[in-house]
Automatic annotation (TrEMBL), chain A:
Domain of life: Bacteria
Species: Paracoccus isoporae
Compartment(s): Cell membrane
Keywords noted in UniProt: Cell membrane, Membrane, Transmembrane, Transmembrane helix, Transport
Membrane topology: Multi-pass membrane protein
Protein name as annotated: Oligopeptide transport system permease protein
UniProtKB/TrEMBL annotation, chain B:
Single biological process term from Gene Ontology: transmembrane transport
Designated name of the protein: Oligopeptide transport system permease protein OppC
Annotated compartments: Cell inner membrane; Cell membrane
Topology class, membrane: Multi-pass membrane protein
């Protein structure tokens, strides 16, 4: 097991480095530097600015400095647009918000999705099954950026129950719509995956054996069917996590929740490359870390995998 | 021994000859199965209608997609609602632009993005996956590890980075979406190639000295088409979703051009002033098209891969 984790890390770290180098080079390939403004800046000022941010060094040295800064102090450097704020500060301001509603909606998607899918499979062709299948088909075409306006239309403009945007850590009213908008389509996918894999497991030989030896149905499902049925769900969690992080950008923009997605889009519109890179790298690291965790979980649950 | 009756033999051979003519290819079989799938057929008809709408819709528009109707400009909530009288069938936005024409335009762009993304995926992904799987060994490992690495990058962020750096142009969007769309496809194709390449007909081709690239193009790729077709159909909606996502953030297609994502974004921004049609029409087209594409994809999968049920 330990060797397996090490081997996975041996791939993960170069991937991350590749991402850093790639985005760094992209940033430099951009026409116009970070200080290109509508108004011409005097050459001397520009040179001073570039010296301050180390932009007059050769490219390889800049990359090394940047990577070294991240490794040593977890420092993503200064923002190019807001000179008094570092990228770290900008990210630190938004990250807790993203994390709060992101985790909640992840838990919601997995919990409700698995429960709904499993229940649908166990009671195949009942009203519950049709409901679950209906929801999971419908939610396929309701990604976060479609869900968000629909929710606001319903709960804020029509019913007036929930605030249409903003964020407060103390008031869960602000959490509800972001969590639902972000989680729904993944909940549906998880329900669909769970349902089909549960159906397959329930018709397999070991379940027939378990039933034949007279185990109560509850025990058959919990002890023998659940674990193998969850394997495909687990391998879906990695991609789901990535697209949920991506989706948080929409949530931040639409609900003005102030998470890192907002900083990302703002920096994209301001051409604040340092912040864009910082967010991209952070998200990349999270993604890689998460898929590592998922793989380890998978290897741990599936007895067929030898690592 | 009785003599073999000539008539009977002749009759038999005739019947067999007729039988041979009616031989069915796997594709004909698949078509039949697909036609029987009512949901998929309805979805196909809906999709064809939407494509017709995208191509010929502007011919029926009384306004073009970027001109401003000064009669309703600034008072969309009270005067811009859908009406047949002033020619704004779907209403107007706050600038007085015709939503009908803009929806046609958005449908065009979104369908185009979806098709181009899927096309790149089909061409690049199939060739890459088939090559990797056919050659095997270390080459295969390196090629697939590269795909793994690219897949673990949060591509939406990189795509936005690309768009910001090289300008938010339509070509850049196509390129960016094309860059990511082929990854999953290449994995699927490789898996299929691995099972194909040890079959007898490939062995026969190799024994008669057919060069590797020719085997891949002439013998492996045609046998992959079923899987590729299914996956490509399912890829189109994903590409549309990606583009809409980016356009929703205002980072994709730029004004005055538009796409479903951009229209939904605009509509979602202004709906609190009561211009619900501005959200409703693009959203309706978006959802119906995605529905149709998903159903067609599912239908194709059932039709082309009867094992997978």
């Amino acid at each position: 097991m330990f060797g397996y984790i090490l081997r996975r890390l041996a791939v993960a770290i170069p991937t991350l480095l590749l991402l850093i180098v790639f985005s760094f080079i992209l940033m430099h390939a951009a026409p116009g530097g970070p200080f290109t403004r509508d108004r011409e800046i005097p050459a001397q000022v520009l040179a001073n600015l570039e010296a301050k941010y180390g932009l007059d060094d050769p490219l390889w040295k800049q990359i090394l400095d940047y990577v070294w800064g991240i490794i040593r102090h977890f420092d993503f450097g200064p923002s190019f647009v807001y000179p008094d704020r570092s990228v770290n500060e900008i990210i630190a301001a938004g990250f807790p918000v993203t994390l709060t509603y992101g985790l909640l909606s992840f838990v919601l998607a997995v919990g409700v999705g698995v429960a709904l899918g499993a229940a649908a499979a166990i009671r195949q062709n009942s009203w519950l099954d049709y409901l679950a299948v209906g929801i999971s088909i419908g939610a396929q075409v309701l990604p976060n950026f479609v869900m968000a306006p629909i929710l606001v239309l319903l709960f804020t403009l029509t019913l007036g129950w929930l605030p249409g945007g903003g964020w407060s850590f103390n008031n869960p009213d602000y959490w509800i719509m972001p969590v639902i908008a972000l989680g729904t389509s993944y909940m549906a996918s998880i329900a669909r995956i769970t349902r089909s894999s549960m159906l397959e497991v329930l018709s397999s030989n070991h379940i027939r054996t378990a039933r034949a030896k007279g185990l109560p149905e509850r025990r058959v499902i919990w002890k023998h069917a659940m674990k193998p049925a969850l394997l495909p769900v687990i391998s879906y969690l990695g991609p789901a996590f990535v697209s949920m992080i991506t989706g948080s950008v929409v949530i931040d923009m639409y609900f003005s929740t102030g998470g890192i997605g907002k900083s990302f889009v703002d920096s994209a519109l301001n051409r604040d490359y340092a912040v864009m890179m910082g967010v991209t790298i952070l998200v990349g690291a999270l993604t890689i870390l998460f898929s590592l965790v998922v793989d380890i979980m998978y290897a741990w649950i599936d007895p067929k995998i030898r690592y | 021994m009785t003599m073999i009756e000539h008539d009977k033999i002749k009759g038999l051979s005739d019947r067999m000859a007729a039988e041979e003519v009616r031989g069915r290819s796997p594709w004909a079989d698949a078509r039949k199965r697909f036609m029987k799938n009512r949901a998929a057929m309805v979805a196909l008809i809906v999709l064809v209608l939407i494509v017709i709408f995208a191509i010929f819709g502007l011919a029926f528009a009384e306004w073009d997609y970027e001109s401003i109707d000064f009669m309703v400009m600034g008072s969309a909530a009270t005067q811009g609602m859908p009406s047949l009288e002033n020619g704004h069938y779907f209403g107007t936005d706050d600038l007085g632009r015709d939503i009908y024409a803009r929806t046609v335009m958005g449908t065009r762009i979104s369908l185009m993005v979806g098709t181009v993304g899927a096309l790149v995926a089909v061409i690049v992904g199939t060739l890459y996956g088939a090559t990797s799987g056919y050659i095997g060994g270390r080459t295969d490992q390196v090629m697939m590890r590269l795909v793994d690495i690219l897949l673990s990058i949060p591509y939406m962020f990189v795509l936005i980075l690309l768009l910001v750096i090289f300008g938010r142009r339509l070509e850049m969007l196509f390129l960016g979406i094309g860059l990511i769309s082929w990854l999953e496809m290449s994995r699927i194709v490789r898996g299929q190639t691995l099972t194909l390449k040890n079959r007898e007909f490939i062995e026969a081709a190799r024994a008669t000295g057919v060069p590797g690239w020719k085997i891949i193009l002439r013998h492996i790729v045609p046998n992959l088409l079923g899987v590729v077709a299914v996956y490509a159909t399912l890829l189109v909606p994903l590409m549309i979703l990606t583009e809409s996502f980016i356009s929703f953030l205002g980072l994709g297609v730029q004004e005055p051009l538009t796409s479903w994502g951009a229209l939904i974004s605009e509509g979602a921004g202004t709906m609190r002033y009561g211009t619900i049609w501005q959200l409703g029409f693009p959203l309706g087209f978006f959802c119906v098209t995605l529905f149709a594409l998903f159903f067609i994809g599912d239908g194709l999968r059932d039709a082309l891969d009867p094992k997978d049920r």
